[in-house]
Write a structure and sequence with these properties.
This protein has 126 residues and is an all-alpha fold. It has a single domain, classed as Orthogonal Bundle (Globin-like). It is built from six helices and no strands. Helix 1 packs across helix 2 and helix 3 crosses helix 6. The longest helix has 26 residues. It is globular and about 40 Å long.
Amino acid sequence: MNDIQNRTDIELLVNSFYEKVREDKTIGYIFTEVAAVNWDSHLPKMYQFWETVLLGKMSFKGNPMETHIQLSKKTEMEQKHFDSWLGMWCETIDEHFKGEIAEDAKKRGHNIAGLMLYKIGNIQKA
């Protein structure tokens, strides 16, 4: 099993991950019903995001934190949702990749989930 090395690997990871997300009983509805994600535009943004985060390509422009904060005003987003997201993220990485960048992807996913939960929690309390 190889490490994450290029855009093709990122696309495999992101596509495999979001296939799980769409079917997930805990968070799938957030993507399909609440956010009504347009997958044709969302997936390329996610490729760019993770390519930037993991491979340093600097292809992503956007503010994912603000997007998730706005989404949290439409539906409850709490620990169980982020735990589900993170579990699927790490599971998907482990199914396809092994190596330093794969491990970094899991750590970064953990950090991103924690930061979003923290910021959203503070906004929901306000």
